[in-house]
Amino acid sequence: MLTGRESLIRLIGKRRRILPNRQSILLSHPESSSHIPKDENGDGSSKNGTYISESIKAEKCGDDDDIHKSGFVTCPVCGNNVQGSDYILNSHLDVCLTRGTKRKLTQRTLLQFSFSPVSKPKVQVGESNSLGTNVIISKDKNENFEQNSILSLPEFCAVEDDNYSAQCVSPLNPLSNLEETCEEVTEENLSGEDENPSGEDENLFGEDVIKETDVDAPSFIPNAMIPKLDDVDKSTDDTSVAIFETFIVGRRFGEEVDLKIGDSISFMRDQYNVKDSNAIKVLSMDSGCKKVIGFIPRELARYLSPLIEKDCLSFEGSILSLPKHSHDVIPIRIVCQGMTKNSQMESNDRELFDSLWENVLHVVEYAKNFLPSKTKHQQNFLVLIQEVMKNHHHLFIDDEKLFIESFSSLSDDSQSLFVRLYTRKGPWFRMSNISYPEILATGYICSLESTKEPNNYDIKEVLDVLTVSELRNILSLSHSKVMCSFRSNVSRDFVLLVCSPSLPSMVLDLTGTCVRVSLTAESLLWRVQRLFFLNGEQDLKAFLMVDLGLVKYPAYNCIVRNQIFSGRTDLLAYEEALEVAQIMDESLDGDDLDKVRRCIEISDARISCSSGKVSQSSTSEPMGTFLSSFSASWVYSKVVTLGISFLEREHRYEDAIRLLKRLLNRITCDGRRGYWTLRLSVDLEHIGRVNESLSVAEEGLLDPWVRAGSKMALQRRILRLGKPPRRWKTPSFSDSIKRKIKEVHILGRPLNCDLGMKSRFYGEDGEQCGVEQLALQYYAGEEGGVWQGVHTESGIWMTIFGLLMWDVIFADVPDVFHTQFQTAPLDLGCDNFYIARKSLIESHLHNIHEGMAEEILITSWESHIGTACRGVNWDQHSLSDLRAAVTCVGGPCLASLCRLLAQDYRSWSSGMPDLLLWRFLEEYKGEAKLVEVKGPRDRLSEQQRAWLLLLMDCGFNTEVCKVGPSAKSV
């Protein structure tokens, strides 16, 4: 694989189905910085701030070549250009009218009326609907509490008077009254039903059952998404009574009971529940005998159960309303009494009580964003949208916000259907299988009929919808003779090859109307997903992995002070750069060399246009910024770096030299400068410019960004090329580079001697093995010194570093955590990691140096086992092996190694010796050895040589083990 290809693939992540700017990029002049229109505002928007992106303007389904723009009209209220569809236009008018742009009106469109006899409050666009689950902390029913704005669903109406800014009344709840005030409502689901006896779904992030002493914030709720409870009275004095609303779930596991509104209910612990030891059963009190109706939602029961078990609280409840279907959730109200015991508790018990009760409030507050009927995928999708619109709203124009936020107004069935379509491969689906036309009307999906004449690209994708028998039917109608010969080899491409121009009509006759996710929805939701995860590798499946308990992310605080993208223009430029990167990757797969060269030219030109900005921002911060990886220039530099490898493979060294010089001149602060400098020196030597190659190497050593293996390689080049008469003075680093590394030679019977193939040998037990396994067998024997060890290269060291430095890695540092799906801070591979945590790191390293490494390792392992962290491999290494390695390596060496990785994780996270060996001399004292193993045709890379010399400086015992046949081992 070309150097830089793997890195580019990780950057792109999951390839986009449609690149909306593909044609404009490929047809644009290479020196144009971007096709994004600019104006006097400089932010890609027009004077009225309503610049419509290509993805919003385009209403095309299928090939990018035929993008056609739908009509836009001028809003009579605000004067902005609005998409002309009825739904978008009406929704936009409602926004303008309700926010009082010109006149304060409250009219609604027919689409917003549900024709319910119950009056409903006004809902502002961008706010979430809500259902129950209200937290009411009532001390004195005559006391007035000032409220925030109320958002409501059909069950509630807002009442305004002189004493209350907003109050929540349920027409279905006879217990509702205007004297009870409720906190601000936002929408959520505490649970849904599944097939487990606890009666409801696994919690959102698939956590295990909580223990009584586990009093942290609810782990199933992302910390960044937990609402602040500053306005919620969390005190539990002698006169306080807490009232909140939730649901009865798991109805299918309950008994048939005739229920009425207002019926009393009670609660009982179900500690022998095989699925959830914290399960709480809900019992009917008005049926003559206690019958199980269902269960309290798992997330809430997780914290209420310890309170019930310790007899801290007693709970009473009543039914608020009855569902339409027998298995639907039932809204209930719970009254918590017995809070007076809190003042009588001992300090430890009171602290536990307060923590559990605060978590109850967290769960109830957070559980207002989703209806219980929503599926997991639907919930996760709404979380993704809401978080992005809350944190990155400045990156979207009004029409984009309106389109995205309109998703919450869709019915549950339509939302669930769209999420299924969006996450499936597709892209086309038969309309006959879809029974919800609402998402068609709103523009989230479109049909093939929207294009007047389906092109070959559309038809090629639609053929995936057909069955094999339908493909054969088309062939039989078009080319019966061909069909007879290829009846057993029917494929989509074959059908396209042999069928006549009448293929589109034949296909549509079989499939009927086909639909797919619209270009507008595809582009905007891709942006939303990218902003949420900040990478292209994660998508909605990340939620699913957590829901199933397959992945557990670490706990940390998201402290955001600076946005990733300061403005919309930066985001659009970054997205365009990602499109160029994907085109480059696709072109390499398809051997389309013309497009590869085109992508290199475009990227080189775009870096040139932004070079002044890059140099200015980089030089103002000598150590660089970890947020630079989210800039268009950084993406383009990756494309150019890959292009240089491509040109070198084509032996086009002159072109590679030109690109390398331009990169080094424009991007002054980057960890790849060492690689660029080394390649420039090598390529100059390839074309015979040895003196210039030597000068480049010498200048590279003065660059603070040239490090690790690249620096070692340049030093060795200087020693080789700088012999007299080119240079008469011996470099100061000569003695250090020429240091001898201890070598050990062992014999091995090779199985193969083919070039390009990994060497295989017969081991001491007669079995076939690799060179590393053969070396382990040698060191385990008497001749080798009776060592224990593992073959992991850098793996075991990254695991040790992650465990020893866990608290440092996930410390509270601003702007390094933006989402709850990170396995490391954004600055881990940058100089900023050490700079921002210097005092904490040095204090931690002091403890390691003084012999506390094993204790830290054990504590970290037991506290975080199974939690995803970059570099930590829980399955490959056992705790006993890690403890032995840490003990035998010793505190001083471990502290030096951890400091090195903290200062420059990116440069030193690879290339470490193959084997880590250890042996105990006494009960708690031992020694360790690091061994690089080489076969008959292998030699040390510059990174490996740099590691070995550096480890020697840190006090490690290192050596190179060379394996070969007897003739070459003497």
Automatic annotation (TrEMBL):
<dbReference type="GO" id="GO:0008409">
    <property type="term" value="F:5'-3' exonuclease activity"/>
</dbReference>
<keyword id="KW-0464">Manganese</keyword>
<feature type="region of interest" description="Disordered">
    <location>
        <begin position="23"/>
        <end position="49"/>
    </location>
</feature>
<dbReference type="Pfam" id="PF21170">
    <property type="entry name" value="FAN1_TPR"/>
</dbReference>
<dbReference type="InterPro" id="IPR049126">
    <property type="entry name" value="FAN1-like_TPR"/>
</dbReference>
<dbReference type="GO" id="GO:0005634">
    <property type="term" value="C:nucleus"/>
</dbReference>
<dbReference type="GO" id="GO:0017108">
    <property type="term" value="F:5'-flap endonuclease activity"/>
</dbReference>
<dbReference type="InterPro" id="IPR049132">
    <property type="entry name" value="FAN1-like_euk"/>
</dbReference>
<dbReference type="InterPro" id="IPR006642">
    <property type="entry name" value="Rad18_UBZ4"/>
</dbReference>
<dbReference type="GO" id="GO:0008270">
    <property type="term" value="F:zinc ion binding"/>
</dbReference>
<keyword id="KW-0863">Zinc-finger</keyword>
<dbReference type="InterPro" id="IPR049125">
    <property type="entry name" value="FAN1-like_WH"/>
</dbReference>
<keyword id="KW-0479">Metal-binding</keyword>
<comment type="similarity">
    <text>Belongs to the FAN1 family.</text>
</comment>
<dbReference type="GO" id="GO:0016818">
    <property type="term" value="F:hydrolase activity, acting on acid anhydrides, in phosphorus-containing anhydrides"/>
</dbReference>
<dbReference type="InterPro" id="IPR014905">
    <property type="entry name" value="HIRAN"/>
</dbReference>
<protein>
    <recommendedName>
        <fullName>Fanconi-associated nuclease</fullName>
        <ecNumber>3.1.4.1</ecNumber>
    </recommendedName>
</protein>
<dbReference type="GO" id="GO:0036297">
    <property type="term" value="P:interstrand cross-link repair"/>
</dbReference>
<dbReference type="Pfam" id="PF21315">
    <property type="entry name" value="FAN1_HTH"/>
</dbReference>
<dbReference type="GO" id="GO:0004528">
    <property type="term" value="F:phosphodiesterase I activity"/>
</dbReference>
<keyword id="KW-0227">DNA damage</keyword>
<keyword id="KW-0862">Zinc</keyword>
<comment type="function">
    <text>Nuclease required for the repair of DNA interstrand cross-links (ICL). Acts as a 5'-3' exonuclease that anchors at a cut end of DNA and cleaves DNA successively at every third nucleotide, allowing to excise an ICL from one strand through flanking incisions.</text>
</comment>
<feature type="compositionally biased region" description="Polar residues">
    <location>
        <begin position="23"/>
        <end position="35"/>
    </location>
</feature>
<keyword id="KW-0378">Hydrolase</keyword>
<feature type="domain" description="UBZ4-type">
    <location>
        <begin position="72"/>
        <end position="101"/>
    </location>
</feature>
<keyword id="KW-0234">DNA repair</keyword>
<keyword id="KW-0539">Nucleus</keyword>
<keyword id="KW-0540">Nuclease</keyword>
<dbReference type="InterPro" id="IPR014883">
    <property type="entry name" value="VRR_NUC"/>
</dbReference>
<dbReference type="InterPro" id="IPR033315">
    <property type="entry name" value="Fan1-like"/>
</dbReference>
<keyword id="KW-0460">Magnesium</keyword>
<dbReference type="Pfam" id="PF08797">
    <property type="entry name" value="HIRAN"/>
</dbReference>
<dbReference type="GO" id="GO:0070336">
    <property type="term" value="F:flap-structured DNA binding"/>
</dbReference>
<dbReference type="Pfam" id="PF08774">
    <property type="entry name" value="VRR_NUC"/>
</dbReference>
